[in-house]
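Changelog note: in this version the structure field was regenerated for every chain. One regenerated record is shown below for reference.
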Amino acid sequence: MPLYMDRHYIEGVLLDDIKFAHEKDLELQGDFDATMLTYWFDEGRGTTFCLVSAPNEDSITGLHAAAHGEIPNDVVEVDQSDVLKFMGRIADIPPAEQVDNLVVDRGLKSIMFTDIVDYTAITSRLGDTQSFKLVRAHNTAVRDALTRHAGREVKHTGDGIMAAFDKADDALVAAHEIVDAISGVDIPEVDETLAIRVGIAAGEPLIENGDLFGSVVNLASRLCDLAEPGEILCDAEFVRYLSAPDTSVEVVGKLPVKGFDSPIEVNKAVGQQQT
C-alpha cells in the first residue's frame, strides 16, 4: 500500500493537542483502510507531519476529518527509504521501558534477511531489464511489510533486503506477509515464478554509520542461505522473544552453520502469525 506524509499547520497548537488527535486517528483508521504509522511535531512552527499507509489521499483526508476535523494542508506520496533518511523512523516509538507490559532492551534486535531464489540463473535467462522487474516486485513486498510492522530497512543486498525489528513478533508477521506477497507476484511481461527465502536471528548487533554488524547479523544471513524456497528459518534466541512460540515455529534441529564453531538450533516458522 502507498506511503504518504501529510502536513498540518495549526497556529497555537500544542503537543498534547497533537497526541490527542493522533489517538483519535488510530481509533478510526480501520474505517478508512489506513494505518497511522507515526507523527512529528515542530512546535516552533506549529507544524505537524503524519506518516500514513493508505490506498489514496482521499482516505487520509477522510480519516482526519472524521477523527478530529483537522484537514491536512498537503498530502504527498513518499518512499520509505527517504522517510528513514530524513525523519529517522517509520513507526511510533513505544515507551523505552516497556512494550506490551514486557521490558524491552533497545539494544536487542531481530535481524531479517530476504533472498530471491536462483536470482543469478533468472538474470541469465531473462537479462538484466526483465529480471530487475522481479527485484522491484520483491522490494515493494518487503518494504510494504516493513512499513506495516515497524521494521527498518538496513540495506539492499542486490537480490534481497536486510532489515531490523525491535519486536520479534513484528519480524515474524512481516516475514510471513513477505513470503505470501512474493508467491503472488505476477508480472505479465515476465514469464518467471518468483520465490524467496528468509532468515531471522535475534541479538545485539554492533551499529556503525547506520549499518549493523556482528554475529547475529551473520547468523541471520546464514539461516537465509539454508532456507528452502518459501521457508522462514530462525534461531532459538529469536524464538525466545515470540509471544506464542509453541504455535509459531517448529524445531528443525541443531545444524552446522558456516562461520560458527558449534551447531546452531534452527527453527522453521509455521502458520500465519497475527498481530
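Spot check on this record: The CA atoms of residues 7 and 49 lie 5 Å apart. Residues 128-148 form the longest helix (21 residues).
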